[in-house]
Design brief:
Radius of gyration of chain B: 27 Å
Oligomer: heterodimer
Distance between the termini of chain B: 48 Å
Largest interface: A-B, 35 and 46 residues
Radius of gyration of chain A: 25 Å
Strand content of chain B: 15-25%
CATH architecture of chain A: Orthogonal Bundle
Low-confidence stretches of chain A: 1-16
Mean pLDDT of chain A: 80
Helix content of chain B: 25-40%
Shape of chain B: globular
Number of domains of chain A: 1
Largest sheet of chain A: none
Number of helices of chain A: 13
CATH topology of chain A: MetI-like fold
Helix content of chain A: over 70%
Distance between the termini of chain A: 46 Å
Number of strands of chain A: 0
């Protein structure tokens, strides 16, 4: 390639390097530029702070029982009141939230990531890869998730909650992966993917660089929905006595217990239910802003 | 963007570098255009000679269309006025976003309710703007009718074509179903649909694009309307089909005596069919006048620019095109003065002050909106002089235009791409549960060509001829189904992974749609960095800056996303990506067909300049033969998966030896009214046969005008024996048994 001296000089003159922020930076910048994103993030951070640092403030631990106060309304002694067993609602709720937050967020992220990867590989390579992956997807779809989880619940008892997260995620991804697969099939025909192919970019890189980012809107929305789905699945599992086992508590088990006494002792129910609602709301706010942040075509504040 | 790299190529020509159609008999005084106009009238019997004096059937005055309100209001149409008389054809030309389609929709009353329309539209004396829906419905289809661009979406898929036409008849007339059906068949016959009685019972999907457009025209003329509005009626069609449809439109006008408002971006189409032209820019009419006046004595720099920026089919040799710098203004943020001022090479400070009114210039009926129209007029200057004298460096004078480098003879240069007997057949499957093969689509069926170092091969043909399939086969670098592909001396069927990667480095691609070929989620920096990183460049930063400069973009824009750019700029990013690895062969798949003409010229010039500067070879796939003539050294014409003719560009264009090439070339409208009227068209009949079931022997024989003149034995030969590409003069190949006889036709 020949470049004339004149041009070379011109290029030397403008040696200000092309400075371009990385994709991560751009997304982060856009995310925090929206007030919705900031609010969601702050709310979620607050929830985490409450769940992990909150118990230090209270005088009671979640295992303590105050035998002088059964089912008492909130007071200076017990900020959020007590349960029928004498347990402090504040301590128990925060403990439960700690579990639910971690389980819900992790399961959602793992589930969505699994859906994206399996769907994109099946859709991109088609052929045998597709057939094998589709078969696995269909198999997991027909397995009764609840039953499997119930059978496996003794495993989670011994503090094996990461396993619980994995199993929960394993039953969250199939439908999304089918959507991802069909989107990949159509995306594969797009010219920018073809251009990357003809450039010599390896297929796996194409999938992670072009295919999955172009479905980020779907994936973020899916992950957001999965957070609530995971928390609620965990809740219902715990409700039936599977999942998180006593003496450990989760928001689910608390809500289940609290629902019985909600009418005449609302504090047993409303604090944990309220926190669940706030958490899901925060996750939705974050998800919404994240989706816009990923999508450069979305313009916030356009007149 | 015009400052950089726009006009580096081509020879500096003495007589200026803008091609302006010169009327052939202009010097002949009395035999001027008027004489030929008269001749033209006599040739068109249906056209009332007194049309000019008749009352206008449609009179649009001060039409304003605004979308939205407040600061975000978009004034799509601003004070457009025009009128058409019976039998007259008014061409409305403009680039995308100029408001030409919105104008016609406003006239039809088809705009969505949130659009605010003011002004007046008088149809045969009745005001129809703001008229109640019921009144409008009585006019629509009866007095005024419309032909849309996309005939597939304009027909209801679940009703038979004949019934749809009959419905159009029965809405406005009290006739029996039987009479309406008979009328439908008559109309189908009128628009040239063979076997109309049978075809009337077919469904829209059984028709080809050109046939559907004929049906649309049949529906439009079903009630003898006074005005037919055609919105880009041929844009979606191939050129040979376009020529057929334009003929049908002319016939429709003759039969009904209706006025036609023809909206198009194609200056060639307008030159051929229109009596008067209205040029729109940024929602305004900037020049109006009789077609010859506007084309030969343009008064508005924008019109001059448009005419100068289109590549011409009928002119060989390379003259660089003169692109219009910059981009059309956004209708939401118009400059205070003349909207064309920022792009105008003749702009003076006065232009930025106020928008010039549309005023009459010396010729009757010729109006232009330019404060310097008088000067352009007095100078009597061809646009070349205007553009050059006034540029002052604004459009980057062609001083740097390098003459074509002296190269060794073609045989002495290296072959960068050789395709031999390439075959690509797709199986045609049927059934959902038990899929079985019911046929074969012979998309590419034995195609051979080669590209040598430093040359451009144009691969042309209509849609469905297999040119894109051939291209994809080459780009895949895999073993073809049949034949061989040799890229840079390496046979693709014997490539290892490492070698394939090396070949990919030397062969790059630019796609048609710049928006689709750039990942919308990546910044321009990441897009350009991708090939560099893939092929192991450490820090792509400096190279990206150079690349952006090379294609005439600001390196500071690297952090932007593709959608922040205009179409032409996006295509420049695509070209920069293709050049990132310093390839030797660039495959261009319709690189300019998605762009507006004024932008297109800049990209073509860029491609030409890059080629001579970087010593590239191009394989240029296009359906636009004028662009190919402009940019290519050699051309290969494809028809139904086979090469019909191949040879040096000037030879093929000036003396085509294959009847298909000849028909194709004659079907392309020239942006030159005089010549366009004088031309004799070789009209092809019918549509492209299905590549799943090509005719035996010569594939073109079903539509071939030469075939019809042959005797029995000649015809048998065409039907039985498939012609191979054979040498026809030096470096010129033709696949026709009777190419020598073509001049007899």
């Amino acid at each position: 390639m020949t470049i004339t001296d004149e041009e070379l000089a011109e290029q030397r003159a403008g040696l200000d390097a092309v400075r371009v922020p990385s994709r991560l930076r751009v997304v982060a910048g856009r995310f925090f530029a929206s007030s919705q994103g900031r609010a969601g993030f702050a709310l979620l951070a607050l929830m985490f702070l409450l769940a992990f640092a909150g118990p230090c403030l209270g005088r009671w631990s979640y295992t303590d029982k105050d035998f002088t106060a059964f089912l008492r309304a909130p007071s200076a002694e017990h900020w959020w009141g007590t349960l029928q067993t004498g347990a402090d609602v504040y301590a128990v709720t925060l403990r439960g939230m700690r579990r639910s937050l971690v389980v819900g967020l992790l399961a959602a992220v793992v589930g969505t990531a699994l859906a994206a990867v399996v769907g994109a590989f099946a859709g991109y390579f088609l052929g045998w890869t597709d057939r094998a992956l589709t078969w696995v997807t269909d198999l997991l779809l027909v397995l009764p998730a609840f039953l499997v989880l119930a059978i496996m619940s003794p495993l989670f008892a011994g503090g094996q909650w990461p396993l619980f997260v994995l199993v929960l995620a394993l039953f969250l991804w199939m439908v999304t992966s089918k959507i991802v697969r069909s989107m990949t099939v159509s995306l594969k025909e797009r010219e920018f993917i073809q251009a990357a192919r003809f450039m010599g970019v390896p297929p796996v890189k194409i999938i992670f660089r072009h295919v999955i980012p172009n479905m980020s809107s779907l994936l973020v929305v899916d992950a957001t929905l999965n957070v609530s789905a995971a928390i609620l699945t965990e809740t219902s599992l715990s409700y039936f006595g599977f999942g998180i086992q006593p003496p450990d508590v989760s928001l689910g088990s608390l809500i289940a217990d609290g629902a019985k006494t909600a009418v005449y002792a609302p504090w047993t129910f409303w604090f944990c239910a309220g926190l669940l609602i706030v958490t899901v709301l925060a996750v939705n706010l974050v998800g919404d802003s994240l989706r816009d942040a990923f999508d450069p075509t979305a313009r916030k504040g356009r007149q | 963007m015009s400052e950089r790299g726009e006009c580096p190529a081509g020879a500096p020509s003495r007589d200026g570098h803008v091609l302006r159609p010169e009327p052939p008999e202009r010097a002949g005084g009395a035999r001027g255009p008027r004489a030929s106009e008269r001749a033209e009238r006599e040739r068109r019997p249906g056209r009332p000679g007194a049309a000019v004096r008749a009352e206008p059937v449609l009179r649009v005055s001060d039409l304003d269309v605004t979308f939205g309100s407040g600061t975000g209001a978009v004034r799509a149409v601003r004070g457009v006025s025009y009128e058409v008389r019976p039998g007259e054809v008014l061409g409305i030309v403009g680039e995308s976003g100029s408001g030409k389609s919105v104008t016609s929709l406003a006239v039809m009353g088809l705009l969505p309710p949130h659009a605010r329309v003011t002004g007046s539209v008088r149809l045969t004396g009745h005001e129809i703007l703001g008229a109640p829906e019921k009144t409008l419905a009585a006019f629509r289809g009866k007095t005024i009718s419309m032909v849309f661009q996309d005939p597939l979406s304009a027909l209801t898929p679940v009703y038979r074509v004949g019934d749809q036409i009959a419905e159009a008849v029965r809405i406005h007339r009290r006739v029996s179903g039987e009479q309406a059906a008979r009328r439908a068949v008559d109309l189908l016959d009128l628009v040239g649909i063979p076997d109309p009685a049978r075809r009337a019972r077919a469904f829209p999907h059984e028709f080809s694009g050109g046939m559907r457009q004929r049906v649309m025209i049949a529906m439009a003329i079903a009630n003898d309307p006074d005005v037919i509005i055609c919105d880009e009626p041929t844009t979606a069609l191939d050129v040979t089909i376009q020529a057929q449809v334009l003929e049908v439109l002319k016939r429709a006008r003759r039969e009904t005596g209706a006025a036609i408002v023809m909206i198009t971006h194609d200056l060639g189409v307008v030159a051929g069919i229109a009596d008067r032209v209205l040029v729109m820019y940024a929602g305004r009419a900037v020049e109006v006048g009789p077609v010859d006046e506007v084309y030969y004595r343009s008064r508005m720099p924008y019109t001059l620019g448009l005419l100068g920026s289109i590549p011409r089919l009928d002119v060989g040799g390379r003259r660089p095109l003169v692109p219009i710098g910059g981009n059309p203004p956004s209708p939401a943020a118009l400059p205070p003065g003349c909207p064309f001022e920022p792009r105008c090479p003749m702009a003076v400070p006065r232009c930025a002050e106020a928008e010039p009114p549309l005023e009459e210039v010396d010729a009757p009926g010729h109006l232009a909106a330019c404060v310097r129209a008088g000067e352009i007029e007095a100078g009597g200057s061809p646009p070349a002089r205007v553009q050059r004298a006034e540029t002052g460096g604004r459009t980057a004078g062609p001083a740097a235009a390098p003459e074509r480098p002296a190269r060794p003879a073609r045989d002495g240069r290296e072959v960068v791409l050789a395709v031999k007997d390439l075959v690509k057949h797709h199986p045609l499957m049927k059934g959902t549960l038990f899929r079985r093969r019911v046929g074969t689509v012979r998309a590419v069926d034995g195609v051979s060509f080669d590209v040598r170092e430093g040359e451009t091969l144009g691969l042309v043909g209509e849609s469905g001829c297999g040119k894109t399939t051939a291209l994809m086969e080459i780009l895949e670098l895999a073993r073809p189904q049949g034949g061989t592909i040799t890229v840079l001396g390496r046979d693709t069927s014997a490539l290892g992974a490492r070698e394939r990667m090396a070949v990919r480095r030397d062969m790059q691609v630019v796609f048609q749609d710049p928006l689709a070929s750039l990942d919308p989620r990546m910044t321009v920096y990441d897009i350009l960095a991708e090939p560099l990183r893939t092929h192991g460049t450490g820090d792509p930063g400096p190279r990206i800056r150079d690349l952006l400069r090379l294609v005439g973009l600001d390196p500071g824009h690297a952090a932007r996303y593709p959608q922040d750019f205009s179409g032409g700029q996006r295509q420049r990013v695509g070209i920069a990506r293709a050049l990132a690895l310093e390839p030797r062969l660039v495959v261009l798949d319709e690189p300019v067909s998605a762009l507006d003409v004024s932008i297109q010229a800049g990209v073509i010039n860029l491609l030409e300049g890059l080629k001579s500067r970087l010593g590239l070879s191009y394989l240029f796939v296009a359906h636009d033969l004028a662009v190919v003539r402009h940019i290519a050294d050699r051309v290969a014409v494809m028809y139904l998966g086979r090469i019909a003719e191949t040879g040096p560009v000037d030879r093929v264009y000036d003396s085509p030896a294959h009847p298909y090439t000849r028909a194709l070339l004659s079907a392309i409208p020239l942006p030159d009214p005089e010549r366009e009227r004088a031309r004799r068209r070789v009209l092809l009949e019918g549509d492209l046969p299905s590549p799943a079931d090509p005719p035996s022997g010569c594939r073109f024989r079903t539509r071939c005008p030469l075939f019809k003149t042959l005797d029995e034995s000649g015809r048998r030969r065409c039907a039985d024996e498939e012609p191979q590409v054979r040498p026809f003069g030096e470096d010129h190949g033709v696949s026709c048994h009777f190419a020598e006889r073509l001049n007899v036709v």
